[in-house]
Amino acid sequence: MASVVAEARRSVGDVVPLVEFRLAGLRGHNRPRALAGLALVLLLTLVFAVVPAFVEGAEVSERVGEIILLLPTVFLAFLLTTAFALIGAAGGRELLPREQAAAFPVSPTTDHLGALLLAPLNIAWLMQAWSLLAVVAYVNGSNGLATVQLTVLSWLLMATALAQVLAWTVEWVRRGPHGAALVRLGGLALLLVVVGLVTSDSLTKALDQSPTVEVVIVAFNGRDGGSWDRWLWGTTIILAIGLLAIVVGAGLCHAVAGRQARDEARAEGRTVQPRVMPRTEFGGLVRTDRSSVWRSVPLRRGFFILAALPGMVAAAGQLSWDMLPVMPGLVAAGGALLFGVNAWCLDGAGALWRDSLPVKPEIVFAARVWVLVEMLLIATVLTLLIAGVRADGAPTSAELTALVATVVVVSLQVVARSMTWSVRRPYATDLRSARGTPAPPLAMVGYSAYLA
């Protein structure tokens, strides 16, 4: 037992040096920019947690009752979307990349804690957390706001830790015998269950039985006049479950580390039949870059989650067509974070010397832009098609025009910003690992904050 405690203490102590190591890898002005991005995230979190409680209509608006009824669903949606994002990333982001871990090995516990630390540093987690804090502040008002938001923050911690446990569990199954088939069958079964609930109009009844109903009740007991005993015990239990999930996740990470990543091995060992050479240099580069996206395990998984998950959430919430223009921005920003913020990551370890390219750099740049726009448009259209299944009939001409204009404008904005980052701050990264990211984790903080 003493050895286990000593190992856990050593693993926790390794996290801080690794964060400092990642900071040291940021060049020039990138380090202060990353720290400024982190400070901006913390400031915005405080703003969303406090300011909505003091706007006009807070706590007394006619829609407050309707919003409170939807809060348990919003809490549950945060847990599910975080879990799906971590599952798609094969357990979460790496604080220390795989190729560097060969020379500086860290324990699976440190890897698990690093993944937990990096989980909030993506646009989906931030947007949902900010939305949750803002909605709770609006319906609660200033009455006992600090205690209510403390419960919400405790839930964010617990939900992220539980999502990490689910992600490690799925990754352990995926790396086992017939793992990929089992995970796909499980995903298909889950999809069929959701479709069945939606088509039978039983989704609302199922959501009413969600344990997040109790979380909402516990949170609002923190108001003046509420049951302080229930709030204290409830919040303590939420924190305890979160801490227990962190410990369980560390054990699961050890189990995952003992199995080989089959998807990655299959991708690297596959045989590809050569095709006819394209007629133009641009066509050849587009084909190569497109193949780099679809043959990369993290990019392929990330694309399908990005295209399907927001649309499924919108369909479950039965969003109307006039609300769907918010979706293209979320999808485009998420797509940019897959590889667009460092488009040169499609070169594997990176193009080390641009002047050695057999074609003009302008053609390489144009090919990357084409592939990025192509991926963003496909993901956005798929999201809107899924979301439109349960929208209120066919869109009007005005609604359709608004959707098309939003898709075009947002895509151009995201592509322009992403390619600017790619040219000014390129990174040599390798996306062969299912947990790989196009840029160092702390650089991704600034990208996520800007795009959010």
Q: Overview of this structure, please?
A:
The chain is mainly α and 452 residues long. It folds into two domains: 56-269, no CATH class; 278-452, no CATH class. Helices cover 71% and strands 0% of the residues. The protein has helices spanning 2-24, 30-50, 64-88, 98-101, 108-118, 123-140, 145-174, 179-199, 203-208, 212-220, 228-257, 262-269, 281-294, 297-316, 327-338, 361-388, 397-424, 441-451. Helix 2 (30-50) packs parallel to helix 6. The longest helix has 30 residues, at 145-174. The two termini are 44 Å apart. The model has no long low-confidence stretch (mean pLDDT 80).
Compact overview of the structure:
The protein has 452 residues and is mainly alpha-helical. The protein has helices spanning 2-24, 30-50, 64-88, 98-101, 108-118, 123-140, 145-174, 179-199, 203-208, 212-220, 228-257, 262-269, 281-294, 297-316, 327-338, 361-388, 397-424, 441-451.
Q: Can you count the beta strands?
A: 0
User: How much of the polypeptide forms β-strand, as a percent range?
Assistant: under 5%
Sheet having the most strands: none
Separate helix tally: 18
Please give the share of residues in helix.
over 70%
| N-end to C-end Cα span | 44 Å
Task: Name the overall outline.
Answer: globular
Question: H/E series, N to C?
Answer: HHHHHHHHHHHHHHHHHH
**Model regions low in confidence, pLDDT < 50 over at least 5 residues:** none
Please give the domain count.
2
How are the SSEs ordered, and which strands pair?
Blueprint: H1 2-24, H2 30-50, H3 64-88, H4 98-101, H5 108-118, H6 123-140, H7 145-174, H8 179-199, H9 203-208, H10 212-220, H11 228-257, H12 262-269, H13 281-294, H14 297-316, H15 327-338, H16 361-388, H17 397-424, H18 441-451
